[in-house]
C-alpha cells in the first residue's frame, strides 16, 4: 500500500483511536465521556375555553391621588375581545366623549358612567351600547398605570408619529420606543399631537396594551415566574373583583396570542355638540364592528375603521 | 503539512535524520488522535447538575417498596402586590412553600420512585398533584414527566439522588398565598438488570394554586434528561426496590 493511499485510512484510524482512547483513557476521563443524553420537553398552560369570545373592559380612571378611582371620570376605556380558540384578540377603543345612553340616567358622555355608578354602571352602559356581554372589568388610575409599567420593567411601545405634547411636556420619535412608566403615561395621555385628538389617544391606549402583551409574552417565555410579577403589579394597582386563579387563566390565555394577531381599533364616530359640549356620535359602523366581534371574535375587513393616527399632524 | 505526509522524504541525512523521518508519521498519527479526542463532539456529562442537598429523609424503602422522598427547599421568595411588603410576608410564603414542596414531593415520588407505578406503567397516583384542568396534559406528557411508560422493561430499581426546589409565592392584599411558581431540580439513578445505570434528570417549572385538597399544579414546563452513567455502572448494585 502506497503512503498516499494509506493516508485517509491513517487519518480515520487516528481519529477513532484518539476518540476511543480519550473515552476510556484512565481516571478522570470518564467525566468527559461522549455519552448520549436523551432529552424531552413538555409544557402546559391552561387557557380559557375556545368556544366563545370573552370580553374584558379595561378602564383608566382620571382620579387623582385621594380621589375615588372607581367613581371618577373614565379617561380611557378599552373593550378587549379575546378569542381563545383562534388565539387572537381585538382591542376596541371607546372614545371617552362618546355620546351614549347611561341606564337610569340622562344621555351623557360614556366616561360619566363611572362617576354615576362605578364599574357596574360603566359595564352596563358599554354592554347596552355594543350589545356584548362583558365578563371582566379592571380599573386603574393615573398613578396605577406607570406603577404597573415600572414594576414589570418597562414596555416597548410602537409610536405611530413623532409627537411633541406641551401639556405633558413629552415628545416621542416614531417607531418602537422603550419606555418607563412615566413615559408610557405621557404617551397614552397625549391627544394634542394628533389631528384625530381623542380618537388617536384611544388608539394609542391600544398600543400600550399591545406593548404590554409583547413584554409579558417575552418574560413568561423566559421565566414562568414572571406571571407572579405581572399579577402582583396588576393587583397592587388595579381594582378588580376577578379571583386570582381566573386572572392567571386570563394571563395564560393572553400569552397564547401573538401581538400581530391583535386588532387595535377605535369605534368610528363623528364630532358633534350636545348641550354645548364636544361629543362623539358613533357611526352605524360601530355596531357592525361590535356584531363582528360577538359573532366571529374579530372585526371583518369591511368593518375595520381607518386608523385615527394614519395621518400624523405635521 | 498534511500533504507532506504522503510525500516520500529523501533519505539524505544520517541515522538521526532517518529516525525522525520514520517517526514522523507516528507523531502525526498521535497528534491527530489527540486532535480527534479534543474535537470530537461530546454531550453533557453525567455530572452536569449542580451540587444539591440530598433529599430528606434518606430512609429505606417502606414495606410497600416506596422510597419516601421530600424535596429540599433551597429558597422561598414572597412576591407582594406592593413593592416593599415582601419582607413582612415570609410567614405565609414559607407555609405555602412547605405545601408546594409536599405536593411536588408526592408527585416526583409517584412519578419516578414508586415501583408500583413505574413497574405497571400506570402513573395515575401522580396526577393527584395536578389541578383537574391539567391532569389530561400530564397524562399526555407521561414519558417526560415520569420514569417513563417503558421503565418496567428497562430498569429494576430507581433511587433518588438529589432533589431541591426554589419557590416564589404571590401574596395578596389579605396576606394570603394565592399562587406559587416552583423551580425543581430532581435527579434519580435507574439501574438495569445488567448493572448499568442511567441517570434520570428532571428540571421543571411548576405553577401551583391552592385548592380544597392542597396546592395543585396548574401549569408546568419540564425538561427531562436520561444520561447513561458508566461511572456508576461499575459500582456495587443495590437490591431492587
Shape of chain A: globular
Shape of chain B: elongated
CATH superfamily of chain A: LCP protein
- Structural class based on helices, strands and sheet pairing of chain A: alpha+beta
Q: How are the strands ordered across the major sheet of chain B?
A: 1-2-3-4-5
The helical percent of chain A reads: 25-40%
CATH class category label of the largest domain in chain B: Alpha Beta
The number of domains of chain A is: 1
Low-confidence stretches of chain A: 1-32
Which pair of chains forms the biggest interface, and how many residues does each contribute?
Answer: A-B, 46 and 65 residues
What is the H-and-E element order of chain B?
HHEHHHHHEEEEH
Q: What's the CATH C level of chain A?
A: Alpha Beta
Number of strands of chain B: 5
- Can you give the mean pLDDT of chain A? 88
Strand count, sense and closure of the main sheet of chain A? 5 strands, mixed
Strand content of chain A: 15-25%
- CATH architecture descriptor of chain A: 3-Layer(aba) Sandwich
| Rg for CA atoms of chain A | 27 Å
Walk me through what this model shows.
The complex is a heterodimer of chains A (314) and B (241). Chain A has one domain (54-303): Aminopeptidase (3-Layer(aba) Sandwich), CATH 3.40.630. Helix content of chain A is 39%, strand content 24%. Chain A has eight helices and 14 strands. Chain A has helices at residues 3-24, 112-130, 144-151, 181-189, 197-222, 226-237, 244-255, 284-296, and strands at residues 38-44, 54-61, 74-83, 88-93, 99-100, 108-109, 134-140, 155-159, 163-165, 170-172, 175-179, 262-266, 269-274, 277-282. Chain A has a five-stranded mixed beta sheet, with helices on both faces. A two-stranded antiparallel ribbon of chain A has the order 5-6. In chain A, strands 8-11 form a two-stranded antiparallel ribbon. In chain A, 46% of the residues are buried. Mean pLDDT of chain A is 88; it is low at 1-32. Chain B has 241 residues and is of the alpha+beta class. Chain B folds into two domains: 2-39, no CATH class; 72-233, Roll (Nuclear Transport Factor 2, Chain: A), CATH 3.10.450. Chain B is 32% helix and 29% strand. Chain B is elongated, with a radius of gyration of 26 Å. Residues 1-21, 26-60 and 233-241 of chain B have low confidence and may be disordered.
Amino acid at each position: 500500500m502506497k503512503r498516499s493511499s494509506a493516508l485517509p485510512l491513517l487519518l480515520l484510524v487516528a481519529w477513532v483511536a484518539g476518540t476511543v482512547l480519550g473515552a476510556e483513557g484512565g481516571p478522570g476521563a470518564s467525566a468527559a465521556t461522549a455519552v448520549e443524553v436523551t432529552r424531552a420537553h413538555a409544557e402546559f398552560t391552561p387557557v380559557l375555553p375556545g368556544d366563545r369570545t370573552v370580553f374584558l373592559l379595561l378602564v383608566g380612571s382620571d382620579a387623582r391621588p385621594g380621589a375615588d378611582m372607581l367613581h371618577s371620570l373614565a379617561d380611557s376605556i378599552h373593550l378587549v375581545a379575546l378569542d381563545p380558540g383562534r388565539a387572537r384578540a381585538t382591542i376596541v377603543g371607546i372614545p371617552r366623549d362618546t355620546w351614549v345612553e347611561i341606564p337610569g340616567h340622562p344621555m351623557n358622555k360614556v366616561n360619566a358612567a363611572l362617576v354615576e355608578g362605578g364599574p357596574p354602571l360603566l359595564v352596563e352602559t358599554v354592554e347596552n351600547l355594543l350589545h356584548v356581554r362583558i365578563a371582566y372589568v379592571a380599573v386603574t388610575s393615573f398613578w396605577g398605570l406607570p406603577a404597573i409599567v415600572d414594576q414589570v420593567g418597562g414596555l416597548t411601545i410602537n409610536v405611530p408619529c413623532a409627537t411633541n405634547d406641551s401639556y405633558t411636556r413629552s415628545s416621542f420619535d416614531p417607531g418602537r420606543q422603550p419606555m418607563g412608566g412615566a413615559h408610557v403615561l405621557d404617551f397614552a395621555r397625549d391627544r394634542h399631537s394628533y389631528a384625530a385628538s381623542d380618537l388617536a389617544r384611544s388608539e394609542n391606549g391600544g398600543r400600550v396594551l399591545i406593548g404590554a402583551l409583547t413584554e409579558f409574552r417575552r418574560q413568561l417565555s423566559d421565566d414562568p415566574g414572571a406571571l407572579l410579577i405581572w399579577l402582583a403589579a396588576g393587583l397592587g394597582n388595579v381594582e378588580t373583583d376577578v379571583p386570582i386563579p381566573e386572572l392567571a387563566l386570563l394571563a395564560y390565555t393572553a400569552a397564547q396570542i401573538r401581538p400581530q394577531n391583535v386588532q387595535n381599533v377605535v369605534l368610528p364616530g363623528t364630532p358633534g355638540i350636545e348641550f354645548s359640549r364636544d361629543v362623539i356620535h358613533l357611526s352605524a359602523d360601530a355596531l357592525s364592528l361590535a356584531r363582528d366581534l360577538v359573532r366571529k371574535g374579530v372585526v371583518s375587513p369591511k368593518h375595520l375603521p381607518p386608523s385615527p393616527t394614519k395621518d400624523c399632524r405635521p | 503539512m498534511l500533504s507532506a505526509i504522503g510525500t516520500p522524504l529523501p533519505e539524505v541525512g544520517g541515522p538521526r535524520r532517518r529516525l525522525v523521518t520514520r517517526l514522523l508519521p507516528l507523531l502525526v498519527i498521535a497528534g491527530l488522535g489527540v486532535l480527534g479526542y479534543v474535537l470530537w463532539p461530546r454531550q453533557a456529562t453525567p455530572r452536569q447538575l449542580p451540587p444539591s442537598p440530598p433529599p430528606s429523609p434518606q430512609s429505606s424503602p417502606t414495606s410497600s417498596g416506596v422510597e419516601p422522598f421530600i424535596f429540599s427547599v433551597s429558597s422561598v421568595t414572597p412576591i407582594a402586590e406592593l413593592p416593599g411588603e415582601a419582607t413582612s410576608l415570609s410567614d405565609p410564603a414559607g407555609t405555602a412553600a412547605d405545601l408546594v414542596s409536599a405536593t411536588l414531593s408526592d408527585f416526583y415520588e409517584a412519578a419516578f420512585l414508586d415501583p408500583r407505578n413505574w413497574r405497571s406503567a400506570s402513573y395515575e397516583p401522580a396526577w393527584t398533584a395536578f389541578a383537574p384542568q391539567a391532569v389530561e396534559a400530564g397524562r399526555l406528557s407521561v414519558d417526560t414527566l415520569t420514569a417513563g411508560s417503558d421503565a418496567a422493561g428497562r430498569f429494576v430499581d430507581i433511587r433518588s439522588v438529589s432533589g431541591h426546589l426554589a419557590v416564589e409565592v404571590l401574596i395578596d392584599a389579605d396576606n394570603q398565598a394565592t399562587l406559587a411558581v416552583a423551580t425543581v431540580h430532581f435527579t434519580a439513578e435507574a439501574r438495569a438488570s445488567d448493572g448499568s445505570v442511567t441517570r434520570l434528570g428532571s428540571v421543571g417549572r411548576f405553577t401551583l394554586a391552592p385548592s380544597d385538597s392542597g396546592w395543585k399544579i396548574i401549569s408546568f414546563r419540564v425538561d427531562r434528561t436520561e444520561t447513561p452513567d458508566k461511572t456508576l455502572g461499575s459500582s456495587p448494585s443495590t437490591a431492587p426496590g
